[in-house]
Specification:
The chain is 45% helix and 15% strand. It contains 21 helices and 16 strands. The strands form five sheets. It has a five-stranded antiparallel beta sheet. α2 packs antiparallel against α3, α16 crosses α18 and α20 crosses α21. The chain is elongated and about 125 Å long.
Length: 508
């Protein structure tokens, strides 16, 4: 604040050289344009305002060597005056061209309007002017009654030389924030498309068709299927196939959140809504998914009291933060999923029928792995490649006997269990190929069939020779007669393989 008249700032003998009356003339002209029929009291107030602006300008001129630029605005955030170095920074030629204009038209990111509207001062603020970084102070200007009549701003010369460590830290924090925002945006984008749905069985071809169709509409989708069938992957694919692909994809596993926290996760929390709540509002998943897709996994585990609130949010397309009465509009496409028999739950009253009908607009039934056994070989190969890359090991192929084991198993855990079994094989066994015996300690024994051992006692050497001969035959069959490849399968050199073939009277 500058409550003292300009004559107190400038010695009488030197006042003339600062020419503050130029500002007075500009302000007087402006006042005359407003209304020439004003009362004497209003004219007196305008004169006082002009005098205080002149005093402020005179003070800034006195400390011109200490500042990099200065600005004066009136109480409407209109430009009153720029210092010469400020004009130079902004690339302006004439002060008369900008006087009376709103400050944002000349400095788009100026905060001077905030100063005159709130009366708050901003003693320190880092601002970018082109390639120059300045430390700016902004202060309100008041009259004798304490009312806002304008604001002043100035940048300290060479301030960043002394504050360089703080400025560097500020720039680093800005860079880290930008990277964090990019990473957050990437984490909320679609990770999978229809092409990531592996399999060409009739059941999977139908799923892919329905996913593409779901991408063309904006209705709610309900994914049904056993656990481990890939419901979240399908949800990602639906989002990627829709016109919301550039919006966020937000997932919430209802079964993984404690019941007393679910409402906050859905709708967000207002500041101070309960003991321990933060001072800043925390948005819920609906707000985070605005303009995109909200995936509600295991929706069948949603408690009944919260089902009513979710139904209202879906119907009205609006939410209220926990502890607030403010209504927030949201634009969200819902994809829900459950592994529970939700129709039976509706019949016995554990799931609201009206919410079920709201979610079950476009149902997609995902097949169990045992119902598409023809896809097991492709899935196993993909998982084998992924695990090998993750463990930095060579990829291992599957022997026919190993694939027979995988096809004969029932897979209660579906695709997720298959991925787990392949990883266990890599970690717990060795060899260039994955054989049937590698599953002995991983899968139930009745699904792993090894060569039968004769019950009649006989010499060990004879049994070993028979087993060796059978293994050589099997390796040659797998290698389609290629001796070098068969030797590699058996872990032998080609010379040793030929020697054993001659030993067992096998044609080379």
């Amino acid at each position: 604040m500058l409550p003292i008249r300009h004559s107190a700032f400038v010695p009488r003998g030197t006042y003339k050289q600062f020419r503050p009356f130029h500002v007075c003339r500009i302000l007087t002209d402006t006042v005359q344009k407003i209304d020439r029929a004003e009362t004497g009291e209003v004219r007196a107030m305008a004169k006082e305002t002009a005098e205080r602006f002149a005093a402020a300008r005179a003070l800034l001129v006195m400390i011109e060597e200490m500042i990099d630029g200065a600005t004066l605005v009136d109480k409407y955030a209109r430009i009153v005056w720029f210092s010469d170095n400020q004009m130079e920074i902004l690339g302006l030629r004439s002060l008369a061209d900008v006087v009376g204009q709103e400050i944002e038209r000349v400095i788009p990111h100026s905060r001077m309007r905030e100063v005159v509207e709130t009366g708050r001062s901003f003693p320190l603020d880092i601002m970018q002017y082109g390639d120059r970084t300045l430390l700016v102070s902004r202060l309100p200007l008041r009259d004798e009654r304490g009312e806002i009549i304008g604001a002043i701003a100035f940048a300290l010369k060479n301030s960043l030389t002394y504050l360089r460590p703080i400025a560097d830290r500020f720039n680093k924090l800005q860079s880290r924030l930008a990277r964090a925002e990019q990473a957050l945006a990437a984490s909320r984008s679609s990770k999978y498309t229809v092409e990531n749905l592996i399999g060409f069985s009739p059941a999977m071809l139908e799923v892919k068709r329905l996913v593409r169709k779901a991408g063309q509409i904006n209705s709610a989708v309900l994914l049904l299927g056993e656990t481990g069938t890939g419901k979240e992957l399908v949800a990602h694919a639906i989002h990627a196939a829709s016109d919301r692909v550039d919006g966020p994809f937000v997932a919430l596993n209802v079964a993984a959140i404690p019941e007393n926290l679910l409402e906050a996760e859905f709708f967000g929390v207002a500041p101070g809504a309960f003991t321990g709540a933060g001072r800043q509002a925390r948005p819920g998943k609906f707000q985070l998914a605005h303009g995109g897709t909200l995936f509600l996994d295991e929706i069948g585990d949603l408690p009944l009291p919260l089902q009513a609130k979710l139904l209202r949010a879906l119907q009205e397309r609006e939410v209220e933060l926990l502890g607030s009465n403010q209504v927030i509009k949201v634009d969200v496409r819902i994809v829900a999923a459950t592994s529970r028999p939700i129709q039976d739950m509706v019949r016995n009253g554990s799931f609201r029928a009206d919410l079920y009908y709201r979610l079950n607009v476009f149902p997609i039934q995902l097949p169990a792995l045992r119902d598409r056994r023809e896809d097991i070989e492709n899935l196993a190969s993909v998982f084998s490649e992924r695990v090998a890359m993750g463990l930095d090991q060579p990829m291992r192929d599957f022997a026919p006997s190993a694939l027979d084991v995988l096809r004969s198993y029932q897979w209660p855990g579906n695709v997720r269990e298959l991925a787990n079994v392949i990883e266990q094989v890599y970690v717990r066994t060795e060899g260039e190929r994955i054989a049937a015996e590698d599953f002995i300690t991983i899968l139930p024994g009745e699904f792993v069939h090894l060569p039968a051992v004769a019950k009649t006692p006989r010499p060990l050497s004879e049994a070993v020779d028979e087993l060796e001969r059978a293994l050589i035959h099997a390796a040659l069959d797998d290698a389609k007669g290629n001796k070098l490849k068969a030797a590699q399968i058996l872990g032998l050199s080609r010379t040793n393989l030929y020697a054993k073939m001659r030993k067992h009277d096998m044609a080379p």
